[in-house]
Structures are given as C-alpha cells and as structure tokens.
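Sharing a chain and its predicted structure for anyone who wants a worked example. Both blocks are below, sequence first, tokens second.
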Amino acid sequence: MVTTVQSLLFNNKYQQLFSPTDFDLVISDEAHRSIGGNARAVFEYFVGYKLGLTATPKDYLKKFDAAKPSTRDPREQERRLLLDTYRTFGCETGEPTFRYSLLDGVREGFLINPLVVDARTEVATQLLSDIGYAAVVISDAPEGEKTSEQHFRQRSFEKKFFSKPTNILFCETLLAHGLRDTISGEFGKTLVFAVSQNHAAALTQILNDLADKQYPGRYQSDFAVQVTSLIPGAQQFTINFTNNKLRGSANALPAYKTSKARVCVTVGMMTTGYDCPDLLNLALMRPVFSPSDFVQIKGRGTRKHDFREQLQDDALKSQVTTPHKTAYKLFDFFASCEYFEEKFNYDEVLKLPRPGAQAGNGAGEGNEAGIGQDGDPDNGAYQHTAPDAIASQVEQQIGFQGMKVDRMFFEKFEDKVKADPVITQQVGNGQWDQAIDYVTTELFDKPSEYFNLDKLRRAAGVDRRLGLREILEKAFGLIPGFKSKNDLLEEEFDKFLLDQQSATGFSADSAATAIVAMKYYLKAYATDHKLRDIIETKRLTDLNVYPAFGMSDFKAVPPAWRTLIPEYVKDYVPLNQFM
C-alpha cells in the first residue's frame, strides 16, 4: 500500500481500516518531516519494522542535558523525543542504520558536486559584515517624524530591509553566468530560492522583465514562474517542470522537449525530495542558516542526466557532442557556503521549532518577511533605492572532499580519538601498531557510532584508499591533510626519477621530451589493473582498442623504460593505496 500520512490521519483512518499487525514493514520517505505533530502516531501504531528515508535527519536530542530539568520546561524533553528522527526509527545513538552520503554518490559516479558561484553585491557584503548595513530610518512618532540609525544584517533581507536594485542585480548575475542547456542553447533549467512569497513574486517579475529584453517575444512572461503555496496549481507546476511541460515545451527546437518556463522561483515547496535531473542552476537569493535546508537545497542539482533523452528525433541524438550533465552551478549571494564551512556551530544545542511553526531557517511559505497585508513595509523597515553593484564573484568547483556539512562523520571520529588518552599516548610515542589495534578493537563497530574503516574512507572524501595510520596522523595534526591520488602518483614518479638518476646516471633533462609519456605510463600502470595484466602477459595488441592507455601512449615511452617502469612499480610502489 502506498499512501500519505495525512490520508491515514484523517478521521483516524489508520486505526479504522487496519490493525497494528497488518503490515510487516512501514516505510517513510522524507522521514524528518513525517514524524511531526500527530503523524508520529501512525508509525507508533504499527508494530512491524520501521524504515525511515531522509537526507537530513533531525537530531533534537543533540547536546540535550536531561540532568538539568530545573533550567528547562519539563515538557521540553518530550517535545524533543517526538521530533527526533533517529529515535523514531530505532537509532538511539544518533547514527543511522545505513548512510549513503553525497560524497559516496559523487565518488562512485552517480552524483555531481556543485560549481559554487560566490557572488556578493556591495549591499549584501555590508549586510554580511559584523556591523551590518547602517541606514537612517524614518518612523512616525506622536511629536512628528523621527529619524534613527539602524543596522540591518542578512537575516533582515526582504523582511525589514528591502532593496529592489539588489534583487535586480541578483537576477542579472544569474542570467549572465548561469549554465546553458547543452542541446537547445537556452538558459538552463533553474531553481531560485526566495525569502518569502512576496519576495518570490518580485523576483519572478524581475526575471520575466529581463528575459523579455534579452529574448524578445520568445517567452511572453513565461520565462520564470512563481511556485509557492499561495499560487493555484503550484504542486502541479513542480511536476510539469520535471516533465518538461511547464508553460509548454520545445520552445527553441521542435524536436527537443524542455519546459518553456526556464526558472521556478520558490520558497520551500521544491526544497525537499524534489527530483528534476536536468536542473543546471540553483540560486540562493536568500540567506540560509539551517544545515538541513542547505543540504536539501544543494541536493536538488546533484542528479546526473543525459539530455538526449529529451530528443524526440533519434536521428539527432548521434549529432549531440556533449549529451551529459557534468556540472551544475550553485549561485550563493549570501555566503551560505562560507557560513557552513567556517562559521556554523555544529555542536550547539538545536532550538526546537515553535508549535505549529516550520523548522529550519524561518523561510516558510507564509506572508511573512516584514510585509503587511496591504503590501507596505512594517514599522522599522528600510527601503534601499540606490544602485547596487557586484563587489566580488568567485567560482569554486567542489571536489571529492565535499563541503564541511557533508564531512561531519569524519570530524566526529577525529574528536573521538583525540579525546581518548590511550590513543593519544600511543600516537605520541610512535606506537602505531598498538594504536591501530586499539582503535580497531575498542572504537570500531561499536553501537555508539558504528565507526569503521570503510565509512571513514568514504567520509574523508578522497579519491583513493586510506589506511588507519594515515587517518590517525590526520586526526592528530601530524599531516596537514590527505593527498589525492594524483599527488601521490606525482611523488612516486619523482622518486622513480631520483632512483634512476642515482642508479644509472639517467638525467631527467636529457630525456625531457619523454618525461610526460613516462609519467603517464607510470600513473596508468600503477592505477589500472587491466593495463598491468596486458603489459605483464605481453598482449600489446590489446592496446589498440584500450581506451585508458592506447598504443600511441605506449609507443611514446622510450623502449628501455617500457620494462623498467613496470619493474619499479612492482618493487617499490604500494598499489593498495590507489584502489
């Protein structure tokens, strides 16, 4: 049976239609949302196995000190228990039964990390500063108008601080630098996240105005669509956008099915669980303060996609030279990536949402953001009308290491071993074998965290195999970080050249034209077991059809080194680290 929790809750339908033992397995998707309020009763009613699926479980007992009831409302612990995803599904330790992270998906080729565009306008830069944006605010008082200087921070944006020039600049920057559709050449499908419904409406209007100027007559105000809860049919809009028929399709190429609408402007509707694999751009035109919201938002763009699937003419598919989605851009206008990398306190006590309020950063779907029902700013609000300009813009491709919000499992292990006096003493004395044995027997696969070497390797976010000694060296600051596979291969090749120079008088300078070919040969041989088998069994004709290292690559290596390099690798290079 497939249903929604809301349907089961209506008139206690789940109790009227089913007995507690009717189902052996109860599965909840987006489990962090489905246990709030009365919904938890559904999962407690059935006695079968419970499986919760979520990218952002909520741990509302994090750092909670039950021994201090005098300082808290005695009902707080009960409220936290009711909202805690882990305990609802039997994971009292705060660690999931199974975890497959974004880093796992990227490393195994199923997902992609974002290309972050950190773009800050002059106004946004001041809002992000320690003192905020200083403005003179005029307010009504019994004795007449009163002026005062107020300082606005990023949390005030589109709540008490309003700036149409800044919103226009956000939209102009997005349209100028966003990725384009690889087949139609149109602006790539995009999600824009706004502060509120009013903000979403304003951004939608700006985007449509800009699109009408850039592409006269093409979109007729359908370039951007507001998708928020107050818009009739908004839920169907999300489905149509995924299915490439929002406001029509095939606007640029008749044989190519893609939404006429290129941008959906939302607040929270398309944040969680929304799957649209051909998205190419995400734009945070609001500050984000919740790591759960941040993970969910950036997760919308991670899906890979083959754009040929949208071509209706098979004959055209063979003509597409770049069919695959290999990147997506995350436009960050309020330094959210920097905040979660450097400033967010991952150990602070989580604050419970108010009863009936939405958890997260407060950017819900309601008519909030400092705007009254008549559309006028509330008292104390400030309208910024002066022109704005881009103060800085930096693009950064997120690598295999991911973002800090994705690496927290590894950092938790580092804190654990550094706090253990036995490991600290063993590492300090250079007793590496004893330290490795102790960690393996005393810390690995324990119910508290279920640490193990495989999980730590994945969480570290490097593109090669790590040993436990190297992990401990990193934890205790004995090495600055983990070297990538290519870094280690470069070091191995340098060692090879030094070895040959001392043993045979070989000079790297005398063979400069062959150095590149030799390096490529050593790297390929050390990392590719199929190539090693071809070389060792002398099936050299297979290189004519081997894509990773072909016959031309092999012939570029001087004949003397075609045998010496494999012999050196087998004798001196530990291959296990490259697996």
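Comments welcome. The radius of gyration is 29 Å.
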